From TrEMBL:
Domain Lipoyl-binding: 22-104
Sorted UniProt keywords: Lipoyl
Protein species of origin: Microbacterium sediminicola
Lineage, broadest ranks: Bacteria, Bacillati, Actinomycetota, Actinomycetes, Micrococcales
Assembly mode: The glycine cleavage system is composed of four proteins: P, T, L and H.
Domain of life: Bacteria
Free-text function comment from the UniProt entry: The glycine cleavage system catalyzes the degradation of glycine. The H protein shuttles the methylamine group of glycine from the P protein to the T protein.
HAMAP family membership: GcvH (MF_00272)
Cofactor stoichiometry and binding remark: Binds 1 lipoyl cofactor covalently.
Entry similarity comment: Belongs to the GcvH family.
Protein name (database record): Glycine cleavage system H protein
Modified residues (N6-lipoyllysine): 63
Cofactor(s) named in the record: (R)-lipoate
Alphabetized NCBIfam families for the sequence: gcvH, PRK01202.1
InterPro entries found in the cross-reference section: 2-oxoA_DH_lipoyl-BS, Biotin_lipoyl, GCV_H, GCV_H/Fam206, GCV_H_sub, Single_hybrid_motif
Amino acid sequence: MTDLSTLKYSPEHEWLRLEGDVAVIGITDYAADKLGDIVFVDLPAVGATVVAGEVAGEIESTKSVGELYSPVDGEVVAVNGEASDDPSLVSSDPYGQGWLMKLKVDPAAADGLLNREAYLALTGGGA
């Protein structure tokens, strides 16, 4: 299981894990819970450039449609085809098999994101 205290978080409820100069990104369990049963994910194309704070994809659930924001600037180097084929992974394992995209980034870009304690404060401890 992922140590959630090692991740960085965005105010839009994405998490980020750095692996060298690659950032693995997904949505938090808090966001997945609020969305409900996820039925579709629309992810950016490999090679696309995404910008911090801007929409990079879409997540549809039985309750609503949510937007996937990029927490940092970067180039998409991978997307999770398993999550596209089985969107329930995003709900059932948001920090593991439910990751959404990998970006080539400047690792310093993650410095401005929230740590676990700050994210919990943002969500009222509900994450």
